[in-house]
Design goal:
The chain has helices at 25-38, 53-56, 61-68, 74-78, 97-102, 122-130, 136-147, 149-154, 175-183, 195-199, 201-220, 252-264, 278-281, 291-294, 300-319; strands spanning 12-16, 42-47, 109-113, 164-168, 186-192, 234-243, 245-246, 249-250, 274-275. The chain is α/β, with parallel strands linked by helices. It has one domain (3-319): Rossmann fold (3-Layer(aba) Sandwich), CATH 3.40.50. The strands form 2 sheets. Strands 3-2-4-1-5-6-9 form a 7-stranded parallel sheet, sandwiched between helices. It has a two-stranded antiparallel ribbon with strand order 7-8. β7 and β8 (249-250) form a beta hairpin. The radius of gyration is 19 Å and the shape is globular.
């Protein structure tokens, strides 16, 4: 029985992030969400990357322009006088039709809160809201209120129907990304097995730990903002993506970087990997259905990805005890 089957009714929130772009982050998020939904669960994807690749893996650009761009993207929620002041987060949820047709017999569902290309401007607007405090107590309250905004929104009863929320973060540590970290139970780090993709992992761990510690310190000292209490965000681990397999194992140069991270990174490195397969993952945006649902059940890449999904879900279960 997979970890997902043992969850019970609690919703789990995972932030998927790496400072380096082009590491398969969105491909991992879309296929992980689709596979969990195919196991009979309700999954929500939140696209916080201004590139909107997760959105465009489930909707065509034309559909996004006609159906989502004006009123139904995450930017509408962040851009008001305060996050959520103009629209409730749950009112932005859409159900992508093509992937859910594929999931019809599974009993699961895959929903989305889409991104917008102008989300890149939101960090500066959020940063401006942190200023202007006349006392240290007020500054701390503003910090908690802003950083906890997404966590508070996800506590709305409308989101309790979901088993899993996956947040596709931008490749930075701006304020939008920080709201995702505060809202998440777990952080999953996809990485290519190369120098640039693994270089920032230690910095990512350190920055996340500092954010959690600062947030909890302000809560401990009685600041009234935030209203979600202390947070405990755990790292699920590093998932190596775009792995080139030769003779049944990663090529030599990639093995070197994988072993280096296993030895030096202060977090778990998952045993399962996501192999490089342009045939499966290269056309993610063309048909609105992630590869794991399109590939034959016995396909090697699909089998490997299901194994990876089970390892991730078991990690969630272990971290929730």
């Amino acid at each position: 029985m997979s970890g997902c089957d043992r969850w019970g009714r609690d919703m789990h929130v995972i932030a998927v992030m790496n400072y380096k772009g082009g590491v398969g982050k969105t491909t991992l998020t879309a296929n992980l969400g689709a596979e969990v939904a195919a196991r009979g669960h309700r999954v929500l994807l939140i696209d916080l990357d201004p590139q909107a690749n997760l959105t465009f893996s489930l909707y065509s650009v034309e559909q996004w322009r006609e159906e989502l761009r004006k009123d139904t993207t995450i930017m509408r929620w962040y851009e008001g006088e305060a996050p959520g002041s103009e629209v409730e987060l749950h009112d932005l949820v859409v159900t992508p039709p093509l992937v859910n047709e594929q999931l019809a017999d599974s009993g699961g569902q895959l929903d989305l809160i889409s991104s917008h290309l102008k989300l890149i401007d939101i960090d500066l607007r959020l940063a401006a809201r942190l200023g202007g405090g006349t006392t240290l107590t007020e500054a701390k309250r503003k910090f908690l209120d802003l950083h906890g905004c997404l966590a508070r929104a996800l506590r709305h009863p409308e989101f309790q129907k979901y088993d899993l929320v996956l947040i596709d973060c931008a490749p930075n540590f701006g304020l939008v990304t920080k709201t995702a970290i505060v809202a998440s139970d777990h952080v999953l780090v996809p990485a290519k097995a190369d120098y640039l993709s693994t270089l920032g992992i230690q910095y990512l761990v350190g920055n996340c730990d500092e954010l959690v510690a600062e947030y909890n310190d302000y809560v401990n000292h009685g600041s009234s903002g935030g209203s979600i209490g202390q947070i405990e965000t755990r790292f699920l681990g590093v998932v190596f993506t775009m792995v080139k397999i030769y003779a049944g194992k990663p090529i030599g140069t990639q093995q070197y970087y994988m072993e280096d991270v296993r030895t030096n990174a202060e977090m778990t490195v998952l045993r399962s990997v996501m192999r490089d397969s342009p045939r499966h993952f290269g056309d993610a945006g063309e048909n609105g259905v992630p590869a794991v649902l399109r590939a034959p059940v016995t396909d090697d890449v699909a089998v490997e990805f299901r194994r990876l999904t089970t390892e991730i879900l078991d990690g969630i279960q272990a971290g929730s005890r």
